[in-house]
Amino acid sequence: MYQEERMLAILDYLKKHERISVEQICDLFLVSRDTARRDLVKLEEEGAVTRTRGGAVLPQLRHEIKSYQDRLNVVSEEKQRIGKKAATFVTDGDVVILDASTTVQACAEFLLDKQATVITNSIHQADILSNGELLNIHLLGGKLEKDHRFLYGSAVVEKVSSYNADIAFIGVVGISEQGLTIAHEEDGMVKRKMIEQSNYVIALADSSKFGRSEFFRFAKLEDVDLIITDKTPDQHVEQMLDAHHVKLIIAEK
To answer: Cβ of 11: how many Cβ atoms within 10 Å?
Structure first.
């Protein structure tokens, strides 16, 4: 079992049992204590767990995460503009990855006349894309996150690793000097693999995402090629992106 798969399994165990010990990791995955500790150190660095004496627990969320349906109603006009602009980067024949974010869903709505192959872990995205006659759709199978309607887990991560994509469209909760962050570690691990398998990475984020930082970092700034947003951010944000060679496009009204 690869480390990333083991980390997902550790998080699944924590969701059910609230805490895990180094000894339990060794017994469950047949690894050494040093390997178990390295897994926990990496998970803590990414904000997914809080290490304790001899093990780890899940961290407390700093604020409530809205359901998918609630998020569909937030800044919808901005998301539509961002999504429409993002869709212009897709050309016929492209292999495209879409994650499960609502802003990326807005992009999906403008891809229906494209001739492309689309890979996604979002039930909503797949449903929208099914209306595109020339689209070839691959829905990644795994565990269902019922509230937010995305599929996750080691099966999804493993399947994504078998694809080579031209473009990945990724949504975020926060963009800061620390990188791109998300509220759900399961979603974040899938996003990370999507980024790794894509030649060009476009993050879609309304302006409220700049300067925010959630508890799970799934990418560094330099992992992203372009960010599409709805209005010009503060100068220090532009300088930060420029320092990491990230292009910025504003989806004008």
So the answer is: 23
Please identify which residue in the block is written with the tokens 């503009």.
81
Other CB atoms within 10 A of residue 133 CB: 8
DSSP summary character for residue 60: P
What is the spatial distance between Cα 98 and Cα 4, in angstroms, rounded to a whole number? Answer: 21
Which tokens sit at 182? 């998300």
Each of the 253 residues of the chain gets a pLDDT tens digit; together they read 778 888 888 988 888 888 899 999 999 999 999 899 989 988 887 778 888 878 888 775 444 444 444 544 443 688 899 999 999 999 999 999 999 998 999 999 999 999 999 999 999 899 999 999 999 999 999 998 877 788 999 999 999 999 999 999 999 999 999 899 988 788 899 999 999 999 999 999 998 899 888 878 999 999 999 999 999 999 999 999 999 999 999 998 7
Q: What is the DSSP letter of 109?
A: T
